[in-house]
Amino acid sequence: MKVKAAVLYEPHAPFKIEALNLEPPRAGEVLVKVAAAGVCHSDWHLVTGATKHVMPVVAGHEGAGVVEAVGPGVTRVKPGDHVALNWAPNCGACFYCLNDRPSLCATYVGPVWAGTMMDGTPRLSKDGQPVYHFSALACFADYTVVPQECCVPMRAEVPLAVAALIGCAVTTGVGAVLNTAQVKAGSSVAVFGAGGVGLSIVMGARLAGAKTIIAVDKAEGKLDMTQEFGATDAVMAGPEATDAIRKLTEGRGADYVFEAIGIPAVQEQCLYAARPGGTIVLAGVSPMGSSTNLPGAIITRQEKVVMGTYYGSANTARDFPLYADLYLKGRLDLERLVSKQYPLEQINEAYADMLSGEAARGVIVFE
Questions:
Q1: Is the pLDDT at 221 greater than 90, yes or no?
Q2: Residue 168 falls in the annotated catalytic set
């Protein structure tokens, strides 16, 4: 079938809207009619070259839609089901899955980074030449074929734009708080970066019962927005941010400090924003090949803990429905995350808006 997709041919180039050929789903695969796809920095890393990936590629890893058809052997979903798409599929049988770390599942890593399905081939092509899938999803297209393990059924009353954000930003941010750091009630939390993931961390910290939630960003518009999501204080990013955080935490520093940008210099600053005995959680994805200087002498002498969080340490089959239920109960204000909606043809404009620093989360929507 013919699909409309945003294709990236090389780094430092714009997305091009083109018609591609999409093969039907094979064994264990699902055809999804995409309804919404979030505009996320992780896809932008393909444009900047910070993330290396085979090209041409259809990006889009934060999506939701409706199952159109299924291939042989599919048991998890059926046509008509609403699904949020999981960009880190898990097999349930490898070492990591069996040890309750499905976000680190080893089974799908090779094919996902090769931009293919599990059989080593993509389902997208143009003029007989392969076009690759980013993060197993390629949901910057009106239809996509994905492994059934990428599909998590959602209740029909959850708006699909919200379900799309649950597919990445919400799960990464809220999960970083609840699953990875396991933030304690009454604690102090600082969050560097107030994009979709950072705001989700703020919401997660409020959900966990944190007493002080300090948002840090360089954009005044975003700082104003953070208090609507639960931040108690807002601090302008820069060299003085660490001192400001100490002043708000009785001179100690925050109990938990989250970095949601992926900039090594900011990650380094987070070490000094945490109190002795505090925890630093790195949720932002740094450029491939970059390095972060976190002095061992400070970590040791001050007993600070540095943690990485990948996809919020999620078990997506458990966590996607949980976050959707919290949204429906009014405990996670996920609709507020959607700053603006765009048709696919405006994807380059959507990323320009994201880079301006004033939007929480843009969402590509399909008819």
A1: no
A2: yes
Render pLDDT for 279-312 as a digit per residue (tens, 0 to 9): 999 999 999 899 999 999 999 999 999 999 999 9
The answer to whether residue 357 scores a pLDDT higher than 90 is no
User: Using CA atoms, how far apart are residues 73 and 58, in angstroms rounded to an integer?
Assistant: 26
CA distance 36 to 34: 6
> How is residue 164 written in tokens?
């799309």
Residue type, 274: A
Per the residue annotation, which of 42, 187, 286, 313 is the catalytic one? 42
Residue 202: both structure tokens together: 């703020």
45 is catalytic: yes
Distance CA 269, CA 276 (A): 14
pLDDT at position 350 over 90: yes
Alpha-carbon gap, residue 123 to 71, rounded angstroms = 13
Determine whether 12 is an active site residue.
no
Query: Which residue in the list 97, 139, 168, 270 is annotated as catalytic?
Result: 168
Return the HEC string of the chain: CEEEEEEECCCCCCCEEEEEEECCCCCCEEEEEEEEEECCHHHHHHHHCCCCCCCCEECCCCEEEEEEEECCCCCCCCCCCEEEECCCCCCCCCHHHHCCCHHHCCCCHHHHHHCCCCCCCCCEEECCEEEEECCCCCCCECEEEEEHHHEEECCCCCCHHHHHHHHHHHHHHHHHHHHHHCCCCCCEEEEECCCHHHHHHHHHHHHHCCCEEEEEECCHHHHHHHHHHCCCEEEECCCCHHHHHHHCCCCCCEEEEEECCCCHHHHHHHHHHEEEEEEEEECCCCCCCCCCCCCHHHHHHCCCEEEECCHHHCCHHHHHHHHHHHHHCCCCCCHHHEEEEECHHHHHHHHHHHHHCCCCEEEEECC
Q: What is the pTM of this model?
A: 0.95
Cα–Cα distance measured from residue 47 to residue 68, given in angstroms and rounded to the nearest whole number: 30
Tell me how far the alpha carbon of residue 276 is from its chain's centroid: 29
The stretch 33-43 carries a mean pLDDT of 95
Catalytic residue among 41, 53, 61, 133: 61
